[in-house]
Amino acid sequence: MNITIVKADQSDASIIHDMQIKAFKPLLEKYRDYETSPANESIERVIERLNQYATDLYLIKLSNSAIGAIRVMRKESKVYRISPIFILPEHQGKGIAQKVFALIEGTYSDASAWELDTILQERGNCYLYEKLGYQRTGEEKRINDRMTIVNYKKLFK
Fold this sequence. Notes:
By secondary structure, the chain is an alpha+beta fold. It has helices spanning 13-31, 43-51, 96-107, 123-131; strands at residues 3-7, 55-62, 65-74, 79-87, 113-119, 135-144, 147-155.
């Protein structure tokens, strides 16, 4: 499986926006998190992220076709935050995310830590992040009666 990450630019905003809607729509329908779901974000929000100084946005490609994206935010003291990562539904569950994390962590090899959030009720996501060495911090945010966001962190020496 030929998975690569390619830094996105303004010309990729539309494809990122379309993939983001497709990837997050099932979760939006399940959890009804209309205020926080990336499926409800405008293309202007994607463009805003592309323009942020401390942000790198990458297309996730399978054999040169875009199948998702990952955003890396630079914080203080070599701490990086992933928000969001998404893969189109038809490509989920194939080990692609694990490969993407390896690529990203290799790209930012100076990291002292990585952070991310996910939906507590999405056990598969929690399992994946824990398998990759992320640990729950105990920080949680209840979005509604269906959904809670939990924070994960992975430390490096």
